User: Fold these one by one.
Assistant:
Number 1:
Amino acid sequence: MKAFLRGYLRSPPAMIGLLLLLAIVAMAISADWLFPRDPLALAGRPLQWPQGNPRFPLGTDNSGRDIAAQIFHGARISLLIGVVATAIAILVGIVVGALAGYHGGWVDDALMRLTEAFQTLPNFLLLLVLVAVFGSDLSTVTIAIGAVSWPAPARLTRAEFLTLRNREFVQACRTLGMSDARIIFREILPNALPPIIVYASVVMAVAILLESALAFLRLSDPNVASWGNLIGLGRDVLRVQWYVSAIPGLAILLTVLAVSLVGQGLNDALNPRLRKR
Amino acid sequence: MSPVLAIQGLTVALPAGADRPHALDRVSLDLNAGEILCVVGESGSGKSMTAGAVMRLLPPGVAITGGSVIFEGQDLATADEATMRHLRGARIAMVFQEPMTALNPLRRIGDQIGEMFRIHTALSATEIAARVLDLLAEVHIPEPAQAARAYPHELSGGQRQRAMIAMALALDPKVLIADEPTTALDVTTQAQILHLIKDLQRRKGTAVLFITHDFGVVAEIADRVAVMQHGMVVEEGPAAQVLNAPRHEYTRSLIAAVPPLTARAPRPVSAEPILVMRDVRKTYRTGGFLGRGGRVTHAVRGVTLTLPKGATLGIVGESGSGKSTLARCLVRLIEPEGGSVSLGGLELTGLTRAQMRRQAHRIQMVFQDPYGSLNPRRRAGELVAQGPMIHGTPRAEALRRAKELFELVGLDPASTERFPHEFSGGQRQRIGLARALALEPEVLVADEPVSALDVSVQAQVLRLLAELRERLGLSLVFITHDLRVAAQVCDLVAVMKDGEVVEHGPVARVFEAPEHPYTQALLASVPGRDFARKN
Amino acid sequence: MRVLALAGRRLLSSVPTLLLILVGIFLLLQLAPGDAVDALIAQTGGGADAASAAAMRAEMGLDLSVPAQLANYMWRLVRLDLGFSSIYGKPVSTVIFERLPATLLLMLAALSFAFFFGLVLGVLAARRVNGWPDTLISTLGLIFYATPSFWFGLMAIVLFSVHLQWLPAGGFEEIGSGFTGLRRTLDIATHLVLPTLTLGLIFLAIYLRIMRASMLEVLSLDFVRTARAKGLDETRVVVRHVLRNALLPMVTLIGLQAGTMLGGSVVVESVFSLPGLGRLAYESVVQRDLNTLLGIVFVSALLVICVNFVVDLLYARLDPRITP
């Protein structure tokens, strides 16, 4: 654990990612204090450029709403959707992958067919179908994103289990008379977990991007301050007031970058051999 | 006579943070024309690093910091990269341990051998093709034309190594460096490859630097021997002298640790059987779709054997003989397809999985890989206590018992709190043994328990096993590919080939007067067997 | 022969996958509020009584049991009958096939762009691992990966179309220009530059990262040491021994990413107003034209299966170890 922390803290990109992520979390937490008013309420004259009016450091959008307020409140939505959708995807992925990889045979066949079915469908298209059928409030969108993101973690978990189940320490547990459930969750899973945790950062990055794309198309929840919503709105005034789209886009970029950097830092710290190369 | 290759005071530094500062510490060796110099040592002795340093193919971060390597009037330790490229392959060639990974999997054998000519000569494509076929014939590959068109995975391990040798000898190099070239091969294949190397070396007058950990191989092939330990050459001399009258303490201990091929004096064997295998069968089906085109491998076909109470039954064979599958069938890690296994009158094969779990404590297994057989995330004491805890022993009691077991297998009872990676390979094998013994099994199945260990550690673990067997009255099934080990440990031995037992009986009888031609071939292939017998 | 047998087997094994998708889609459709008749009635202004609605349901087989409807649905799909789009007033299959070429062209262009530059940059980074080119390339990769494609597209429009006026801001070709032949090809190409970059950017990031990792992995393998021991120089070691081995994971990735890329085209086609499948999907969601949407999902699944078939063929050609 100590070696892991030291490995992580010694890498500059990983530290930049961590600081960036902490800053975004701080934005999300402080949004209610710094911008107590509804971020979607009219705040002033529309389309004021950033730095033009000291009340609106990032300017106002085409409906006269404060962009800075929307950015701070939007951090909440992005992080919330990212974390919850990732948790759903990873949990489902671990269960499916562990069962398939450990048991093999027909269980594996059936579960892998299901996973393949999900991977064959373009995930964004499936997301559109889910939103079209179930509506587009925040919780539906979050669950839908989780539901289209589990196949990759499932495959990864399965691959880990496939190699680990043939390792001699697992065979030793079986010869001791240990039950399957205990072998799966107490013996194999802790060994399979590090790459899955690293992969969670990829899932989270993709989840944030998926939500913003959905919001950009105005198919996500219109009643929350989402960065994607704002970009979609700014598209109408793109030719002149391009900053309305540019600012929330940068916010998404930095958030996804932070998550990726942290993921990479975790990976390097967990596999010190690879970092040296 | 001046040496072909003269290594003088060669020092190679390891990167900061390694377990010692130097991989090689002032190593001096002379390789003369037309001789085979064996460099022997255990893992970490620096023997492979010597080969890497001569070729200047060292891992990143490892560098030559002193000394010289004189070859054809040049110092290779300081030569530039372009000079080295001209020498590599053409003047000094190399053969590696693992022929499967040492060949590019995506290119044909002939293409890869031909590359030698394309790099170093101006021969035309047709000439190269002809030379490749000659080379393949020279290393006695059956059907050279077919082998040249094959991809590495389509050849057997022995054929791949022959192809590697053909490639290395393509340009008649002055020096051939062979880095454990037979370690990954079965014993009969190993004998053929050793013979081939010796034969080619005699005919071509190549000087061979042969790196190995196996004194049997040394006895078989060496003209001169250098023994390495901790990056230093501790003893050097003619083979006969080093093998028969070693001067250095370390050499003596290494040679003493090599188990002799002659069986020990027979122990009395009980008439009461404890484990009976009747017609055990297991087939694997691979590939194929909807039942078509699949390949069927008969891993175990109808094995019938009996283990008497308190005895040790050795199962010996080469890779693919089915011995490991059989071992796993005994503990039901693999479900046998037919036949029966009965333990003290209890039919194991008829039990459901849940019933088998409850009977698991009566038959336990020790595994081969000291690194893979312990869960890296559990403390050593917990690993040993796990078994009894599953079968109902309270945790505190099981952990206390684990400390006793640590003492029994010769480990410090205080080390139960440590994690597996803090132990050496031999110590881990002792933990594995303690784990199996914790359940007080009637039968212990040991699958190549000492194969991954250095010879001196191997001797210690074998001694421990013999001692425990006497003390606890264990009945043992001992799987091994190493006939010397089998000779030392077993009372009875069964020789397996292609899933069948071709011969079995008391070990002294089988080893002194083998009846089946395969057993005879196997025994004849053991490297350095004359040395081993008189040892 | 080996290659064909292998790919054929894989194609056969995707049949159950496709069935699973179809059943899944059908069940999703059952969950959706309202059916095709409701949609039709809403479309015509809602002026139909219960009796005629029931008659319409009977005519369309919507009064049957769920399994019977499923069987009907499957049978229609087998004949590539995807139903009728009330919004476009045409059979869904016609609508889809009108839109397919633009999407295929965009995907092919983006894939080629991402694969080629991902390969080159990945190799460059791996050759200078931990040096400044590696740091630069890896950092760019991370940034590209984190960039939302639609936002990149918008910013590219602002820069290249609005300010610099180098490239068109949208559309597939100049409408009403009457260009033909080479002139038309060129026109379409200029229209596709920005969409290709936009769609390909994230894949470029993924490919370059995989290629770099794969190169480093292969460079550490034993046969590379053999190649060096033969006296090959570093360039030839890479070209003759490393590259082809390192390409294998890249090829696998094409198949895995085909679906993601198709999904990405929804956003990109919306940004650049391209008349493709993705934009059609978006429009049918907005207009609640579920028939068309499900048709698109079906065709996309077929497309992904086809791409994977081709990838399998390619992989089997590259790797002789694969056996059917």
Number 2:
Amino acid sequence: MAEYRTHPYDVLVIGAGGAGLRAAIEAAASGVKVGVVCKSLLGKAHTVMAEGGVAAAMANVDDRDNWRVHFADTMRGGQYLNNWRMAELHAREAPDRVRELEAWGALFDRTRDGKILQRNFGGHRYPRLAHVGDRTGLEMIRTLQDHGIHSGMEVHMECTVLSLLLDGGRVAGAFGYDREKGHFILWPAKAVVLATGGVGRAFKISSNSWEYTGDGHALAYRAGAELLDMEFVQFHPTGMVWPISVRGILVTEGVRGEGGVLRNSEGKRFMFDDIPDNYKSQTADSEEEGWRYTQGDKNARRPPELLTRDHVARCINREVKAGRGSPHGGVFLDIAWIKQHIPKAADHIKRKLPSMYHQFKQLADIDITKEPMEVGPTTHYMMGGVKVDGDSQMSTVPGLFAAGEVAAGLHGANRLGGNSLSDLIVFGKRAGQYAAEFAKANGAAAVDDAQVQAAARKALAPFERGPEAENPYKIQYDLQDSMQSLVGIVRMEGEMQQALDVIAKLNARAAKAGIDGNRMYNNGWHTAMDLENMLTVSEAITRAALLRRESRGAQFRDDYPDKDPDWGKHNIIVKRDGDGQMEIEKRPVKPLPDELKQIIEEMK
Amino acid sequence: MAQQALFRIWRGDANGGKFVDYKTEVDDGMVVLDVVHRIQAQQAPDLAVRWNCKAGKCGSCSAEVNGMPRLMCMTRLSEINLDMPVIVEPMHTFPSIRDLVTDVKWNFAAKRKIKKFRPRSPDAEDGTWRMQQKDVDRVQEFRKCIECFLCQDVCHVLRDHQKHEEFIGPRLFVYTAALEMHPLDTEDRIPELKEKYSIGYCNITTCCRQVCPESITITENAIIPLKERVVDRYFDPLKHLFNIL
């Protein structure tokens, strides 16, 4: 019998990024006992990486903005596959959530009249992103952390959840381990909020941190919850490709906004070669016009480098595949060229893009004021996740809630920049509030010790198999390679079928993974235990992407390059069936109420 | 291009340990954390290392590389002499958990004791405040902190004298400074700075400022102004005289 210690809570929050902390603060404020479990130290979650800002229609910079415009922008970006109720609540509530951060100590950049400053961003009609330079995510997580530690929540740092416990159909708590000693912990809970973030670690090139192993997605799936929109993985067009140590790290859209251009190895601005018909009228037809746009000329149209993220990413991918890439498998992003137009260009670039200058100087030894950067697409964000009720954020499993990247619905087929940080605080709050209500309305659930012991046995098995068995790191690398090359930015039937075979084989290998050493802070053991989650999520992504025989938003099928109107009315649900097999279902999108339909029509 | 390097990594736990040599191939453009990961994947799967974003933004992978407190993810091999063994060890100021991982929980506990942010009443009827950019600039510098605790590691009051019970260290002085200089804050933390956090122990050697990966001017912009506030209140001879009278 495995030993474990027990920490019971009314509400257990798994994850301590923006969504988790906001949920915990809200639940604690309503008087219930709240525990937070996080894989890293408090304040290190992936939220710190967010740069651009938090979208909220506060209308501080342009008074034409309001929640209706934000709602319409979000729905357009998501190609109308969004959960409209979430898009509505998000747009309505984001301003209050941002102002609340200020009341808790956040210091956003200011307008001249002393209000919170807002900036422009792709897909947002008006300047809408509240920000702090290019470190908005850090500001947000630190604010929530410093406020949260005084709110009564208990934080279990560097602990990982292995499984959710069920009582009948309802959630009863979670079971996991602490990294420091490797001891097991049981967290009985009346309600559980998943706030575990995304799945980027299943791919080789990713802007995401190691924690993003799809834990919440997989925990919910194994508990019987429905997952939604799993085929929609956002690839950002410009990540660093060299040195390998930083491959995938984001290169902000701001570089292109300031006049940076993309060139292939032949020195050609290839983005001019492929401008989609529906964007032709809004896109510059000469390099000169594109340049004027970036310098604020309102009569000029945007250069093709500023087309949608998915399109730019695919064009880069095509150049590389055609053998016209840069030495390390990307293309060239050149901002230094603007010296042809601007005197003292080096100073100008340093002033406009300080962190990018610093990032390349420090990590790649490249002076972006003198030479081009090498960039390529990087796995950035998971639109898909746990299907939740728009108001309460409860999943299809009673007592199990989800918020932030692990939840699905708000972003539909593609997410707008800036809508992620606002997602965290709007739905983090809602999840915390409704989880607390659920905990108050329902008594304690019964914990089944057999479930606990089974989870413990499974966790310890890699030690029994020992270091001679499969190396977990190797399995992880193989999965990342396959997902990157077979279910990446351009997808095809045959390759994805092949990916399913690979995943099946890797599942068999993962079941045989073994490790050395003891249970104290053993990264090899942690990796062995993370594998199952990454494999589950990878399979769900692949199966959903196979079923959706069209290209829409973040999903691009080379064999079905166009939109299919029928698929525009359907989501895909992934669920575990009674036999433990992955079941996949095409389900109609819920029709919009007239009031919201009218807003979309007005804003078209 | 690929070359051989010798990494001498501290392995052990709270009960003691030793340096273990790992010979490994290294590639162009790698950082120290990459090499640690390669050793972990190929030679020592249970090698303990704490890391997260790998982009210098989360402050998890703090360690001492050839004796210097550094973020491993931001230390390029090109700035290290690879003809000599590269020595990687955990931060010294904090108790060992295992290998390169130390127990930094003290920082979190000490922070919790500092009085929280308490804003003045809102300036506008809609519950919002007005602040000028120039008034938030200096606090924004402090809020760049990624809590890597390298400044705590290098502070001799903590590292050599182990005054964790009565001194909060540079990171938490920066935190306190951010609160004290916040345009909206109304709380008073000066008595604690003097009595409980012993800001007087700091003799401004600027070691903390020199190791800060975010280049926060810890000593000059945070600690010295706080010291001045303490001195103003408690050690101003005129004020003292006035109080006696």
